[in-house]
């Protein structure tokens, strides 16, 4: 699935600047990624005896006000999502080191691939400013349950990413 996302992205790269046209204009793709996020969350919830994380992980708070969201530029939205994804990828990496159970480890590995693919993809898009640079500090919360990581990813894909792609579609899909 992550490879599909990367492939669809690479097929639509313009010289010198990434064009998210297919990902943005084909609404079925974001719906597919939302479905995959739900599936990963469900499967993680079905894993037997997932441990509580001995070292809590820091997750981004991905809730948002739609009214405030609409007032932001696409570049600001992109940077905000990048901050959330960077923190989420770090949380997944930290959790992977604490989960030895096969089911949980497999789901975390899949989540890492998906979130990291979106992170790499959005890093290549640029509109107003130069390339993305880490160092942001999104609103965050500590979490001790692995299922919270999957919930956060699903909420991010279903919320900010979906609305971001919807906003981009207005300009790119004429």
In words, what does this structure look like?
This protein has 174 residues and is mostly helical. The protein has a single domain (23-172), classed as Growth Hormone, Chain: A, CATH 1.20.1250. The protein is built from seven helices and four strands. The chain has helices at residues 2-10, 21-25, 27-46, 66-70, 74-96, 102-124, 146-172, and strands at residues 13-14, 17-18, 52-60, 140-145. The strands form two sheets. It has a two-stranded antiparallel sheet with strand order 1-2. A two-stranded antiparallel sheet has the order 3-4. Helix 3 (27-46) packs antiparallel against helix 7 (146-172), helix 5 packs antiparallel against helix 6 (102-124) and helix 5 (74-96) runs antiparallel to helix 7 (146-172). The two termini are 27 Å apart.
Task: Describe how the helices and strands are arranged.
Layout: H1 2-10, E1 13-14, E2 17-18, H2 21-25, H3 27-46, E3 52-60, H4 66-70, H5 74-96, H6 102-124, E4 140-145, H7 146-172
Antiparallel strand pairs: 1-2, 3-4
Helix pairs in contact: 1-6, 3-6, 3-7, 5-6, 5-7
Organism: Oceanites oceanicus (Wilson's storm petrel)
Subcellular location: Secreted
GO molecular function: cytokine activity; hormone activity
The biggest sheet amounts to: 2 strands, antiparallel
SSE ordering = HEEHHEHHHEH
What is the overall pLDDT average?
A: 82
The helical percent reads 55-70%
- Overall shape: globular
| E-strand count | 4
Q: Strand portion, in percent?
A: 5-15%
Strands ordered across the widest β-sheet: 1-2
Query: What would you report as the Rg, rounded to the nearest angstrom?
Result: 16 Å
């Amino acid at each position: 699935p992550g490879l599909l996302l990367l492939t669809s992205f690479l097929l639509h790269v313009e010289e010198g600047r990434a064009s998210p046209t297919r990902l943005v204009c084909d609404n079925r793709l974001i719906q597919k990624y939302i479905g995959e996020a739900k599936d990963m969350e469900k499967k993680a919830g079905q894993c037997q005896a997932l441990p509580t994380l001995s070292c809590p992980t820091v997750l981004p708070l991905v809730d948002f006000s739609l009214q405030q969201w609409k007032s932001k530029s696409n570049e600001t939205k992109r940077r905000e999502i990048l901050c959330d994804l960077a923190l989420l990828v770090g949380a997944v990496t930290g959790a992977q080191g604490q989960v030895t159970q096969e089911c949980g480890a497999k789901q975390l590995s899949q989540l890492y691939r998906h979130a990291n693919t979106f992170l790499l993809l959005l890093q290549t898009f640029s509109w107003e400013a130069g390339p993305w640079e880490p160092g942001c500090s999104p609103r965050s919360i500590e979490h001790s349950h692995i299922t919270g990581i999957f919930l956060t990813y699903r909420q991010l894909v279903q919320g900010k990413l979906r609305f971001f792609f919807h906003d981009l579609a207005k300009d790119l899909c004429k």
